[in-house]
């Protein structure tokens, strides 16, 4: 079978389309024929350097994918063969206190498909059967599969951050940075679906228009209005937001605190803007604000996000869809930051001529 195999760390040249042996499933695993996979920032970060402990080369990336089960490692799992499934990338033992508490990423046996074990940038991938959610989508419906493949990481992370850790409820005002990122776009849709007033932050007039079109109530263009905290105060009549979903970290965290009302919350779900920061501590204790860690997302967060997507509660914003052979171009688009929503690559069984759904918005 063919797979995009990463053999070193660096530019796009370290990932090559290679003929490799088909995976053989363990007794608790099924083999999935990949129909579509969505790119995540970690795919590119890990191509540059091994940012996650336990990741090594040769490696097949791809955390987010949908596919069709073609075989299994045990006759007891044969019922899954033929099903179209979405794969949860978090693999854990399923038995320890953290797994039983629905916090699988704290498990000592925790692995991530597409990070610390091989993922979906391939024709076939072997995954634990318990990681598969059967979905009601035809194996030839490339447009729907492209959307579906983009649900797990962005959907479950936004679900956990906003609703799990953040306890966002209808009527509250939430600030979400990076409405054009796959994560931010999913967060905006999930917050809207739950009745929140959404203020989102973007960079550039074009992304502002896209964010408004996606339903956000207020959009602040940080290139035109660098003091976004003051803008939030103006929008909220001086009160501040109930919740800021900070999935970027770094300097943003201190600003996020100041953008919340007294007693407000900040959920920290990521550190793409920096691992360290400095806080003005009175901003935290005097108004009684809280900073909450995102923590492990659970199978329930994943299941909720998938179910909400399936029943149309929220939509996934797709930037573009690429053929399997053009992975390097798709990754270049992700690295350019000139995109809005999720970037998806179709599995090799879709020929390039099926790409008429692709809108490579310039
Ligand atoms: Zn465990």
Automatic annotation (TrEMBL):
SMART domains named in the record: PKS_ER
Keyword NADP among UniProt keywords: yes
Signal sequence interval, chain numbering: none
UniProt KW keywords: NADP, Oxidoreductase
GO molecular function: NADPH binding; oxidoreductase activity, acting on NAD(P)H
Protein name according to UniProt: Zinc-binding dehydrogenase
SUPFAM superfamilies, per database record: GroES-like, NAD(P)-binding Rossmann-fold domains
Top-level division of the source organism's lineage: Bacteria
InterPro entries for the chain: ADH-like_C, ADH-like_N, ER, GroES-like_sf, NAD(P)-bd_dom_sf
A matching Pfam family: ADH_zinc_N
Domain Enoyl reductase (ER) per the UniProt entry, residue ranges: 10-345
